[in-house]
Amino acid sequence: MPKVLVSDKISPAAIEIFKANGVEVDYLPDVGKDKEKLAEIIGRYDGLAIRSATKVTEKVIAAATNLKVIGRAGIGVDNVDIPAATKKGIIVMNTPFGNSITTAEHAISMMLSLARQIPEADASTRAGKWEKNRFMGVEVTNKVLGIIGCGNIGTIVADRAQGLKMKVLAFDPFLSPERAVEIGVEKVELDDLLARADFITLHTPLTEQTRNVLSAEAIAKTKKGVRIINCARGGLIDEAALTDALKSGQVAGAALDVFLEEPATANPLFDLPNVICTPHLGASTTEAQENVALQVAEQISAYLMTGEISNALNFPSITAEEAPRLTPFIRLAEMLGSFAGQLTETSIQGVRIEFEGAVADMNTRPMVAAALTGVMKPLLADVNMVSAPQIAKDRGMQVETVTREQQGAYENYIRLTVITERQERGVAGTIFANGKPRIIQVKGINMEAELTPSMLYVTNEDKPGHIGRLGTLLGDLGINIANFNLGRMDVGGDAIALVSIDGELTEEQLGRIAALEGVKQAKALKFNM
Ligand SMILES: NC(=O)c1ccc[n+]([C@@H]2O[C@H](COP(=O)([O-])OP(=O)(O)OC[C@H]3O[C@@H](n4cnc5c(N)ncnc54)[C@H](O)[C@@H]3O)[C@@H](O)[C@H]2O)c1
Ligand SMILES: O=C(O)CC[C@@H](O)C(=O)O
Questions:
Q1: Domain ACT: where (predicted)?
Q2: Nearest protein CA to atom 3 of ligand 2, as residue
């Protein structure tokens, strides 16, 4: 039974979901804050469910010897070292929609609180001051709201702001003009937004492009008296520049849910009267927490129990319907890759994967990842389907994928060609109705061979006596033949023997096979079945 650790505080409903799905679960909500403890125990688990307090560092990942999946109950995954997880073959998932409405509502609440100085007025009233003249607010009706980052949350904010009769501008390089029209926002460049907005709200992830998107220079371009809301990520605003601008009056107020350093317990912004702060509460409603917890528990369980992948940030999705159909083809692709990889002795420049027939209409990305895994496994012990595409890219391997309709006799087949500086070597296979993989072509030579854990691959000239000599030698060596498959280009041309054997060949035995008359190459192949 797979075992999952929940290392942050999440809705108890998630624990019940894990159990109902047949997954053992340890709920240790304080472990996430203790990096040492987390690294000490993580090796026991197949899955890890987190919110934002758990920092899944390279060190934690190095200790995660069994971990297959990390699920973030929320959106931002900046607390997970995704490259390290990918390298180790760990799927990283999030729940991209579960808390969007809640976070958008928080941003709108912050905007209205800023407009009417509600927290300060509340504190003053409770202090018995009744300062009716001190708290003069502004209306939001007919004001301009500038949204930086108009994805899931930004779009909901735009919708709610339009309900408040605001004019909405959006700066988002990935927002298409058609989508902007559909959601009723004016798509603008950043400088235009800065110059025109009465309120600016941030809804981008924190990336190298968005870090300090509100820098001192950007803030200097804003309309005097602008109000700024950040419910996305600390680091999007230069906090020192914001402090100066709040003091000078360039910025009339700021409402911040997120900070450069979190937990934020001391920050110069806290001393300013025109700042409203919340402790990263954007996603904190019962509804959102229930949504993300249930979703993450379902996603992690589905992956561990069936191989279904949804909302992974480092692997293509595989739906529950696809998983059983894809599984035999994923295995075939990995075996073809392994076959070609084991025959390749020089550095690989590229891999071409051709899908023909019904398989071409399936989700080919997991099969490509599996094929690359097979190709690289003989060279790199640690490669797997999650890490293979990235490793291939890092190594400058060109990966070409071709899909086409059925042309030949096989209803579907996959051909994998490894390209080295010396040659191109192709191997093709199919899945029979019984779900078993078959090799149907090697180096352009047709054959029909079942793949078994231990095989002997021999190329030779097609001359009389070869099969007898090979069979006799294997008998003399005490090697039992389980299956003998032959194919040849044409009479007297190149021929291939693919022999399933019981047990494994030693180097010395392989040398004797290679020395047989007419043999050009002899290789022992191993397959994980
Ligand atoms: N405060 C909280 O508790 C809380 C809760 C949920 C989400 N968040 C954060 O809110 C942010 C937005 O979440 P989302 O679900 O809307 O994400 P999303 O991916 O749906 O949207 C992000 C948008 O930012 C845009 N973008 C990317 N780079 C940009 C750039 N350089 N300039 C302008 N736009 C850019 C993208 O095109 C995308 O449309 C994330 O950082 C997420 O972590 C915070
Ligand atoms: O888990 C939380 O409370 C915050 C979540 C939020 O930052 C997110 O990115 O989803």
A1: 455-529
A2: 283
Query: Residue 267: which residues within 8 A CB-CB, separation 6 or more?
Result: 239, 259, 261, 277
Shortest-distance ligand to the CA of residue 185: 1
At residue 442, what is the residue type?
A: V
Q: What is the rounded (10 degree) CA torsion for 29, 30, 34, 39?
A: -40
Check pocket membership of 291 for ligand 2, CB cut-off 6 A. Answer: no
Alpha-carbon distance 393 to 226, whole Å? 45
Q: In this structure, what token pair is assigned to residue 284? A: 């904190």
Judged on CB neighbours under 10 Å (0-12, 13-18, 19+), 211 is middle
- The radius of gyration of the chain from alpha carbons, rounded to an integer in Å, stands at 30
Residue 255 lies in a domain: yes
Would the CB of 500 count as within 6 Å of ligand 1? no
Please compute, for residue 182, the number of CA atoms within 13 A of its CA located in the half-sphere on the CB side. Answer: 8
- Dig out the tokens for 346 from the structure: 């020089």
The predicted structure's pLDDT at residue 179: 92
CA torsion through residues 284, 286, 288, 291, sign: positive
User: How far from each other are the two terminal CA atoms of the chain, in whole angstroms?
Assistant: 21
Task: Determine contact, residues 180/164, Cβ cutoff 8 Å.
Answer: no
> What range defines the domain where residue 349 resides?
319-451
* Ligand 1 pocket residue status of 100, Cβ below 6 Å: yes
**pLDDT given for residue 381 in this prediction:** 67
Mean pLDDT, range 394-402, rounded to an integer: 92
The predicted pLDDT at position 436 comes to: 85
In a domain, 312, yes or no: no
- Shortest-distance ligand to the CA of residue 105: 1
CB 184 within 8 A of CB 162: yes
Evaluate whether ipTM surpasses 0.95.
yes
* Nearest-CA residue for atom 10 of ligand 1: 232
* CB neighbourhood size of 353 (10 A): 23
- How many domains, in total, are found in the chain? 4
Judge if 108 and 249 occupy the same domain.
Answer: yes
DSSP H helices, 216-319, are: 216-220, 239-248, 286-306
Residue 233 has pLDDT above 70, yes or no: yes
